[in-house]
Design goal:
By secondary structure, the chain is an alpha/beta fold. The protein has four domains: 127 residues, Rossmann fold (3-Layer(aba) Sandwich), CATH 3.40.50.2300; 139 residues, 2-Layer Sandwich (Alpha-Beta Plaits); 114 residues, no CATH class; 107 residues, Arc Repressor Mutant, subunit A (Orthogonal Bundle). 57% of the residues lie in helices and 11% in strands. The protein has a five-stranded parallel sheet, with helices on both faces. Strands 7-8-6-9-10 form a five-stranded mixed sheet, sandwiched between helices. Helix 4 links the parallel strand 3 and strand 4. Helix 8 packs across helix 9 and helix 20 packs across helix 21.
Length: 527
């Protein structure tokens, strides 16, 4: 299933000017297409098409070692639903006859004009629309008959995950009673977001639907588990290579459509009655994303777990001295030195790091309440535990812990005691500033309070405006990112919660007095 109105097109031609002209001068959007890539050889096209979910291939015929016909032959076997259009000279008419064997949709003769493309691609769009509608109708009718069976199967799996099923005979009874059949060996795959929880919650049902489409014709079940993770149970008759392809396609599509980073934990279950164990293994594998920031697929069977992590501890008394006696900025350094010991390691007890962070926070808070006079009202223990668990990367956990402890330190020095509500607002801004939806209204929805009430409380306690505080925090983060290296400006914008890079640039200039590029130049000159 495609969630776009446009069909995805790849263009291949070994003549650079011709390739550029077709991509940039033709009215693809008007005709209902998006050019998702171009290539100047069949070899490059194969690599490109394996990385994009293209619907149509427009290709020249004569192109060096591999011809357009060779390319169509290969792609038609790998992607049977892909449509093909050929563009070439009159002398290639014999090639065209051969292309008919591969069900090429049409042939555009060179020299050609825009009208030739418009006629053929509008006709092709009608065919694609009809096929899409037929698939939709088929899926609807098939779904109508299969819904109850799938639901029964899904419910059985969920029950098996909650309760131990130890004997194969128990599976047999469940299958007979519910008129369903499970494959004997399966892969258990769990999928979750690496960052940006709200985008995940908004689109996980669409991702689930896309997975269902990708595994069409393969024995398998896709469902949302009780932790809002997507679970995929798929027959192990599919090779690891094919499972890897499905994972790669989903990963690319989710990033392309929603700029959402997701990760996968995979375990092989040799017996269906061991599914609960496989689910635990997949969960352990998935959560390695916290420690391995450059990986997004984790096969449990490939992991070698570290055994020294249990000896890693925070020096609580030293940190208390740094915070409450020295009032030093060494807080970040001390926390960084401990947490980096988990980096690039596989940790079986992935919740151990949350335990360490929560324990440190509680110890610091208790010290502040005992020695610094902070009141019970600022006790944020439960919220801290929830937020540290929701931070899926080591970097996010570190930043949240540092910000939370700094807040205690600042409150202790100033004698300020914020209400729980104001502390919650600050925590949401500091941990979710990169969320595109971040706003006063978003915070109101998260806290269950009206936006007017939140504004009044925040203004009364801190003398600040919430939306201005959001912008302030984002701009401070933007200054760090702009100054920190070669990150493109649109990426900086995305990293602090702005989808529109032009709007971000205007805000940044208003805030700093310089454009992002000028600000970076200034930092480089000063260094």
């Amino acid at each position: 299933m495609d969630f776009h109105t446009d069909y995805r097109l790849v263009i291949v031609d070994d003549e650079e000017e011709s390739l550029k002209g077709m991509k940039e001068t033709l009215s693809w959007k008007k005709w209902g297409y998006t050019v998702v890539g171009t290539a100047s050889s069949a070899e490059d096209a194969i690599n490109l098409l394996n990385k994009t979910d293209a619907d149509i291939l427009l290709t020249d015929i004569r192109m060096g070692k591999l011809s357009g016909i060779d390319l169509i032959d290969y792609m038609s076997q790998k992607y049977p639903l892909m449509k093909f259009v050929i563009i070439s000279g009159y002398s290639d008419i014999e090639y065209y006859r051969k292309a008919l064997e591969y069900k090429v949709f049409d042939y555009i003769l060179k020299p050609s004009c825009e009208a030739d493309f418009e006629r053929i691609f509008l006709k092709l769009k009608n065919v694609l629309d009809e096929e899409y509608q037929k698939r939709e109708k088929y899926e609807f009718l098939k779904g109508y008959w299969d819904t109850h069976r799938k639901k029964r199967k899904e419910n059985i799996v969920k029950n098996m995950l909650d309760e131990a099923v130890e004997e194969y005979e128990e599976i047999n009874i469940l299958e007979q009673e519910n008129n369903v059949k499970f494959p004997s060996q399966v892969y258990m795959i769990l999928i979750d977001y690496r960052e940006n929880e709200n985008v995940w919650l908004e689109h996980c049902k669409e991702i689930k639907a896309e997975l269902n489409y990708k595994i069409k014709g393969v024995p398998g079940i896709v469902f949302l588990n009780k932790d809002n993770k997507i679970a995929l149970l798929i027959s192990s008759e599919k090779t690891e290579e094919r499972i890897g392809e499905i994972i790669e396609q989903i990963h690319r599509k989710v990033w392309a459509d929603w700029r959402l980073k997701i990760c996968f934990g995979v375990s092989c279950c040799q017996k269906i009655e061991n599914i609960k164990k496989a689910n635990k293994e997949a969960q352990v594998a998935l959560n390695q994303m916290c420690f391995m920031e450059n990986k997004y697929v984790f096969w449990f069977e490939d992991l070698t777990f570290d055994t020294e992590y249990i000896n890693v501890k925070f020096q609580t008394e030293k940190l208390q001295h740094v915070i409450f006696v020295e009032h030093s900025e060494k807080i970040e350094e001390e926390i960084e030195n401990v947490l980096k010991k988990f980096q690039s390691k596989y940790i079986y007890d992935f919740k151990h790091i949350d335990f360490l962070c929560t324990q440190l926070y509680n110890d610091i808070l208790l010290y502040a309440e005992t020695h610094g006079g902070l009141m019970e009202e600022c006790d944020f223990r439960e919220e801290f535990s929830r937020q540290i668990e929701k931070a899926h990367t080591l970097k996010d956990k570190k930043n949240f812990l540092i910000n939370s402890i700094k807040q205690i330190s600042q409150d202790n020095v100033s004698g300020e005691v914020k209400s729980k509500l104001v502390r919650e607002i600050d925590a949401i801004i500091k941990t979710e500033y990169a969320n595109f939806n971040m706003s006063l209204q978003y915070i109101a929805e998260r806290t269950g309070k009206s936006s007017n009430y939140l504004s009044a409380v925040y203004k009364n306690e801190l003398g600040k405006n919430i939306n201005e505080e959001i912008i302030y925090y984002r701009m401070e983060k933007a200054k760090e990112l702009v100054a920190g290296g070669n990150m493109k400006m649109y990426k900086v914008a995305e990293n602090i919660g702005y989808a529109d890079s032009s709007y971000f640039a205007k805000l940044f200039k208003k805030y700093t007095g310089l454009s992002p590029a000028k600000y970076r130049e200034m930092v480089i000159e000063r260094s």
